[in-house]
Amino acid sequence: MASVAFCGVAFASSASAQQASTEVGELVVTGSRIQRPNLEASQPLLVISSERIEAKGQTNLADALNDSPSSGIPVNPIGDQGSFGTGRNYVNLLNLGTNRTLTLVNGRRFVGSNAASLFTGAGAGGQVDLNSIPTGLVNRTERVFGTGGAVYGSDAIGGVVNIITKTRYEGLEVNGQFGLSEYGDAEEYRTRVIGGMSFLDDRLNLMGSYEYNRTEALAFTDRSVTNRQIAFANNPLNTGPNDLIAGAILIQNRRFPETTAGGLPARTGGSALSGILTIADPNSPGGRIAAQFDRTGNLVPYQTGVFYQASVASGGDGLNLAKLSSLRSPVDRHVASGFATFDVTPKVRLKAEAFASRVEAVEPFNQPIYNVSIFGGASAALRMSTSNPFLSAQAKAAILAQPTALPADTASAGDRIFFLNRASSDIGNNKTEAEGDVYRGVLVAEGEFDLFGRAMNWDVSANRGQSRGSFSSPNIVQSRFLLAIDAVQDSSGAIVCRDLTARANGCAPLNLFGEGAPSKAALDYVGVQFQAEYQIDQTVYQANFGGSLFDLPAGALGFNVGYEYRQEESDFQPNEPMRTGVGRSAAIAALSGEFETTEFYGELSAPLFGGDFTFLGMQGLEVEGAYRYIDNSLAGEDEAWSYGVRWKPVNDLTIRGTQSKSFRAPAITEVFLPRSPSFTSATDPCDSRNINSGPNPTARKANCAAAFTALGLPANFSLISNIQNFTVEGATSGNPDLENEIADQWTLGFIYQPSFIPKLALTFDYVNVKLTKAIVNFNLTSILSTCYDSNAYPSAVCNRFQRGDAASGVQAGQILGRGAAPGVPGPLSGFVNAGFSNFQGFTVGLDWNLELATIRGFDRFGGGDPGTLDLNLDLYSVREQETSVNGFGTDLNRDVGEIGNAEWQWKLESAYTRGPFSAIWTFNYIGESKFNNDFTLETRTPLTVDAYMRHDLVFSYDFAEMIGTPMGLKNMRARLAVENLTDQPPPYGTTGLGVYDVIGRYYKLGVTARF
Question: What is the DSSP letter of 124?
Fold first, then answer.
């Protein structure tokens, strides 16, 4: 049972290659449109068979693709979700970005599901949601790395994923599977039906599938690795930048000490914990202790924990963010597909493909609406008076009895002013619900004919897809919130809103003293439902003509020429509350845009040596080339090209290589985004934890000192920048003048199949990608780095943000958001062709199909049939992975060896099969990784996390021989999969989201019956 094949030649032990070769006479290998007699390819090609997906009980193609070490950190339902991307599943080859991986189905484009918004959690582009593609009729999945633009067009920067479906199917298959974690949660359900039948003397074949898949939710509190809330915090033992004492250390039980869900009363709107109001300490007669509101509205003791810095304490009663964070968002999928093939003549066929899916997802936990002293604007601490009638008698008396009297409330004699810090998870929890439908239909006519004695082939196709859906979440109307918290008693003693007009319009007073205190009437008054709808339309017309031109000594000169017209339209429509920004979030602008592209392409493949035409050191040599002309209505004219070579110096060894130029066209979001408010966080170079690091530490420190001096602050001002943990409001916009991203790519490798070891193949491929003119949203981190890490300070880019001066109190030195002070617009960002990315790495593959009976002595076991053993090694090593957003390199981010980009990763899969029984053991290894390459022993400890090892085990058995063939049963295979057999958690210091397994030991039990 083969699982994964590293292909460059036809390989007998690859189940996928065997199956494919029996279904069609010639193959079109991903990375080329020229028909070939086998799975030969010049570029690195990784094939995952449907048998492997089925055997491991993988219910989503994303799981199978992300199982490979060369797949980068994906966008998936694990962890924090984008506001308009909940539950999505996008693959990320070589970690170059999900929008730089092209996903095809049967060599044709599939409509994307990435809404035209900045807040999807993924880069702008046409990413295909793999939730929308069924697993049932998939034959194999092929991946090509570091090439593809000349053959397929835009987006093939990291590579191409091509999902190839079966061409014919007869019979009926029913599949059911249930999954459950070691902890009794994270349930998963899958049911699937596949059917097919041939008619008209096998000229017509109809086949289809339907599958339902559901995964249940997990919270951070459901797993110890996330519930323990590990975070870096300022080291209290640190004395300076040169003391060899780390500036930051890891702590556990991180809490947000400035606030709670029930509320903290404070003397001022400042952030110092010393300003929290106190009550008599019940455990220390005569002593005082900080106070918080309990669920009854009374003041009770508050433990601040061990304070390290703003928003970070260890332990205590502060806000526990684990309770407000989703570990896995539940996804509900209905996916159907249908295929028809009709042989009009023996050499002319009509085909049709249809896909339909419904995906629903929820991000069940999310951060709430804040009113906290360390924030500004509408999220700052709330000014309150002891005259508020919602205050309990106990709480009012305690506030009035402060040892140092609070400021008097001039509007109410005898009352005092205080401030309330509250994380209002009982008002607006921002829980996002998403639903999406995808429809796609393809009509194809194809055939073969002879022209002047040469074999020719052709196809024409029309491809129409639509993705549409909505996202919704609860929020508040800020103006109503302010009216509702201003409560008084009327003449009857009832608590009402102070403002008479608001009262007449239905204002219900809002009680904020204690978690759960708000009434339903108040929640209905202040609440609002945010909703955004999106629609993406894709239309593609394509024609191909190919075959052989003439014979060369080693074979025919193959060619293919083609034409493609593609139109993409995207529409994103927030409802009125979102567009007008009535809540705490930035106003979300509507966006509509479209583009069309007309493209012509061609390929040649020339076998120069091989077959009967060989000599010493030249058993085979084939060269190939491809060219594509592009005329994009937004980015204008461009070209892509590639050439490659396969050389066999001896029969056992093939050396292969490619050189190519690929591109990514600007996405609709990047071009058409109107100037829109945005909330942003950033890494601040002038933060005291960062000021001595970065690409140019000397310049950074000097420039920050100059900035502080200009603000009226000391040159050595020690800034703890809030922007690193919390967002401020700014603005961003699209750019109609964007050009294509350009990638220069090359690959070099070999395939070694020693004739003296049957069915063994070794592969090696080195991949190099240099991406220039990268389209980047020039975000605040890049702006700040460009400003402070430059030798020419201040530059124009420094005008894109403002800091608070010495007179601004708690905002001194802080990055100011929109409205934080009169005339402050907030940070300004936008899309530009500025960045670059460099990638280098290699893959090593081993495939060995070993018939155990061929090993001396083994034929004595199992009655002469000891079974077969398939070994597959997939090793991936990153040698260079660096990105600069500003294009100057001053913000160069070197990711090699960091978490998610370990220098060494590998997977060893061993499959044993004998008769109806099979077992698969998979061992995954991720090498030791760094938190950040910029960290030093002076700035952080620890610097690394340990290597990670995970074991999976699958057993399956075909019971058909035991139960016979009732109702035409052909086979019935049951399987038990145990993922993460040793229940290995992520390395200490990281939650491991998107990199390591966070679910823990997981059991899957499934049955597949074929009739």
Answer: S
Beta strands in 506-619 (DSSP E): 527-552, 555-574, 591-609
Q: Residues for the chain: how many in total?
A: 1011
Q: What is the pLDDT of residue 809?
A: 85
Is pTM beyond 0.85? Reply is: yes
Angle, helix 697-710 to helix 780-788, in steps of 10 degrees: 100
What kind and span of H or E run contains 478? Answer: helix 478-485
CB atoms within 10 A of CB 716: 12
Task: Please give the Cα distance from 134 to 163 (Å, whole number).
Answer: 10
Q: Show the tokens assigned to 927.
A: 């090498």
Kindly give the pairing relationship between strand 495-497 and strand 527-552. unpaired
pLDDT of residue 867: 92
974 contacts 959 by C-beta, under 8 angstroms: yes
User: Tokens in use for 967?
Assistant: 């109702």
Compute the Cα dihedral for 219, 986, 884, 145 and give only its sign: negative
Q: Are the beta carbons of 914 and 868 closer than 8 angstroms?
A: yes
CB burial string 471-499: b at 16+ within 10 A, e below:
bbbbbbbbebbebbbbbbeeeeeeebbee
In the chain, the amino acid numbered 734 is: G
Surface-to-core class of residue 425, CB atoms within 10 Å of its CB (0-12 exposed, 13-18 middle, 19+ buried): buried
Q: Which residues pair with 213 in a beta bridge?
A: 190, 333
Q: How far from 523 is each of 269, 274, 690, 747, CA to CA, in Å? A: 25, 32, 42, 60
pLDDT of residue 516: 96
User: What are the φ/ψ torsions at residue 394 (nearest 5 degrees)?
Assistant: -65, -45
Asked if 680 contacts 780 with a C-beta cutoff of 8 angstroms, the reply is: yes
Q: Could you say which residues of the chain have pLDDT below 50?
A: 1-4, 6-25, 38-39
From CA 143, how far away is CA 876, in angstroms rounded? 14
Residue 403 CB contacts under 8 Å (≥ 6 apart), including other chains: 278, 288
Q: pLDDT of 4-40, one tens digit each?
A: 454 443 333 333 333 333 333 455 677 788 876 544 6
On whether the CB atoms of residues 5 and 49 are closer than 8 A, the answer is yes
Compute the distance between CA of residue 727 and CA of residue 586 in angstroms, rounded to an integer: 11
Residue 393's identity, in one-letter code, is A
Q: Phi and psi for 609 in degrees, rounded to 5?
A: -135, 150
Look at the block and give the residue holding tokens 């003449």.
Answer: 491
First to last CA, the chain: 21
Neighbours of 664 (CB within 10 A): 28
Q: What is the CA radius of gyration of the chain?
A: 31
For residue 773, what are its two tokens?
């003119």
Whether the Cβ atoms of residue 475 and residue 585 lie closer than 8 Å to each other: yes
Q: Cα angle vertex 867, ends 864, 870, to 5°?
A: 150
From the centroid of its chain, how far is CA 690? Answer: 27
Secondary structure class of 175 (helix, strand, coil) = strand
Cβ proximity of 535 and 568 under 8 Å? no
874 residue type, one letter: D
Structure tokens, 561? 């020429």
Torsion angle, alpha carbons of 956, 961, 962, 964, to 10: 130
Q: How would you class 704 by CB atoms within 10 Å of its CB: exposed for 0-12, middle for 13-18, buried for 19 or more?
A: buried
Residue 281 CA to residue 284 CA, distance in Å, equals: 5
DSSP state letter for 342 = E
Contact (Cβ atoms closer than 8 angstroms) between residue 403 and residue 281: no
Instruction: List phi, psi (to 5°) of 573.
Output: -130, 100
Q: Are the C-beta atoms of residues 647 and 621 closer than 8 Å to each other?
A: yes
Quickly count helices (H) and strands (E) in the chain.
Answer: 14, 52
546 DSSP β-pair partners: 457, 560
- The strand pairing partners of 171, in sequence order, are 196
DSSP class of residue 862 equals G
For residue 778, what pLDDT is reported? 85
Question: Which residues face 173 on adjacent strands?
Answer: 194, 1010
